[in-house]
């Protein structure tokens, strides 16, 4: 599991990223906003789906920023 720090509006949020290579899954969780998301390596349009899910927990602008960061972090793995 990787833990990244996301800074939004002067606040630090921990982003937990778990990769299950055997099942080809990635689980993302941000406890501070009570949000989590699971996707597979083969999922189409992950960025769009992340934004849609994040919009339930944060504003549209924050959802866009957080989703871009998550995509960058998961590509590094």
From TrEMBL:
Pfam family for this entry, one: YueH
Identification of the protein by name: YueH family protein
